[in-house]
């Protein structure tokens, strides 16, 4: 395994991305404490993201609005505008890509780059170039923190050390001492449960952890992830394994005036069509549908096996079957706060295995042709022009295109 002799990676993390994009786009919000919320005029919800001004009062992401207003009476609640964040994300990628190639986009507000031999010589200048370009061509209210290190994992940790708008550089000769003062929650791969497990093994700080042997880390983690983390923290060039696609799904918080089973089914239906459309575009079939509904206190879910399908008719038929079962077990007057659908147990399109007993190949092929024709028309006109059944999105739109830290919405999510 190779151990770099200099910095080779850059990791960039935008500061308070959603709130800063709102402030850049809307001058009236600049310099003020704002909190991004799912809906306008709703008090019983949470702050999805907070601006730096709000964070100075102690407001945190995913904090109850009532608690946030109590510690920051002047907090301005701003309804989310996911398509604005998508467009800002794409614009920022274009500007950063004009300075150096982007190796991987990790989330809507994080990315990583490999450094060539010239860029490794002057990381401060490279960081200044990126920040200057963002400020000039996108706007000064969107800032980023950048970490440089021998590998991606260490660069990500470094980038968190001097937020907001900081630059942190860790050379190989800084390791592992530079990690000793850090708390466990600064280390990707160490969550609260793992921290408790480490404590049970007599490991209470980073110095204790870094003294372990790789095999000991593997034993504590109970898989190879612990050993990989050891090598990453000691500066080795660890490459993440290729991940396989496991599912396509969407979830949605329901507006307060739509929190009934009837409305929840209508939204679940539209979410499922969107998920199936994404799945077809990516070239997959699904053999399982999972549906869940969440109330204020209880959650309910069920699933249905599918005969390896991709068309709208098949998945919507399965949804109706699952929903009838859910209605039997859910309280009659339950307020459904959130609903979600997931298509899982995926197969690559050209590896589909037909069910000989079901003998539905002719029907499936006809339905697939129909679904693909609908996809083609909608894509051509960039809207849900043709749909199977009613298509009435909830207030606020952004059905399937909500704020997401892990998946970057595309334009089709907003049709």
Note down, in words, how this protein is organized:
34% of the residues are buried. The protein contains 14 helices and 14 strands. α10 crosses α11 and α12 (261-282) packs antiparallel against α13. The radius of gyration is 24 Å and the shape is globular. It has helices spanning 17-25, 52-55, 65-71, 82-97, 117-121, 123-137, 152-159, 192-200, 206-210, 214-221, 224-233, 261-282, 312-329, 361-381; strands at 9-14, 34-37, 46-47, 49-50, 63-64, 76-79, 104-107, 110-114, 144-149, 167-169, 247-253, 284-294, 299-309, 338-348. The protein folds into three domains: 10-149 and 157-167, MutS, DNA mismatch repair protein, domain I, CATH 3.40.1170; 175-243, Orthogonal Bundle (DNA polymerase, domain 1); 247-414, 2-Layer Sandwich (Dna Ligase, domain 1). The chain has a five-stranded mixed sheet. α7 links the parallel β9 and β10 (167-169). With 415 residues, it is an alpha+beta fold.
């Amino acid at each position: 395994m190779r151990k770099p002799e200099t910095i080779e990676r850059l990791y960039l993390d935008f500061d308070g991305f959603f709130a800063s994009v709102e402030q850049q786009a809307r001058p009236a919000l600049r310099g003020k404490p704002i909190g991004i919320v799912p809906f306008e005029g709703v008090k019983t919800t949470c702050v999805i993201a907070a601006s730096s001004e709000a964070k100075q009062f102690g407001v945190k992401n995913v904090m109850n609005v009532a608690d946030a207003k109590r510690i920051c009476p002047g907090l301005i609640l701003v309804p989310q505008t996911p398509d604005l964040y998508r467009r800002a994300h794409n614009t920022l990628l274009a500007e950063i890509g004009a300075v150096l190639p982007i190796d991987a986009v990790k989330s809507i507000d994080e990315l990583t780059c490999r450094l060539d031999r010239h860029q490794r010589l002057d990381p401060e200048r490279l960081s200044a170039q990126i920040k200057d370009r963002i400020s000039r061509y996108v706007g000064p209210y969107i800032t980023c923190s950048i970490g440089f290190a021998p590998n991606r994992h260490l660069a990500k940790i470094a980038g968190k050390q001097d937020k907001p708008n900081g630059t942190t550089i860790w050379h190989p000769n800084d390791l592992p001492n530079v990690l000793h003062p850090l708390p466990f929650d600064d280390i990707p791969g160490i969550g609260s449960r793992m921290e408790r497990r480490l404590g049970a093994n007599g490991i209470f700080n980073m110095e204790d952890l870094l003294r372990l042997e790789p095999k000991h880390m593997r034993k504590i983690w109970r898989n190879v992830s612990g050993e990989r983390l050891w090598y990453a923290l000691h500066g080795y060039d660890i490459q993440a394994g290729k991940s396989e696609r496991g599912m396509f799904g969407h979830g949605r918080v329901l507006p307060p005036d739509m929190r009934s089973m009837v409305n929840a089914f209508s939204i679940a239906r539209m979410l499922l069509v969107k998920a199936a459309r994404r799945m077809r575009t990516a070239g997959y079939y699904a053999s399982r549908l999972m549906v869940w509904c969440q109330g204020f206190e209880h959650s309910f879910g069920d699933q249905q096996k599918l005969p390896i399908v991709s068309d709208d008719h098949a998945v919507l038929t399965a949804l109706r079957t699952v929903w009838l079962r859910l209605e039997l077990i859910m309280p009659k007057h339950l307020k459904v706060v959130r609903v979600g659908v997931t298509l899982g147990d995926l197969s690559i399109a050209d590896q589909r295995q037909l069910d000989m007993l079901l003998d539905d190949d002719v029907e499936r092929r006809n339905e697939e042709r129909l679904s693909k024709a609908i996809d083609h028309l909608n894509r051509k006109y960039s809207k849900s022009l043709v749909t199977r059944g009613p298509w009435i999105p909830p207030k606020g739109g952004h059905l399937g295109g909500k704020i997401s830290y892990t998946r970057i919405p595309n334009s089709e999510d907003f049709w």
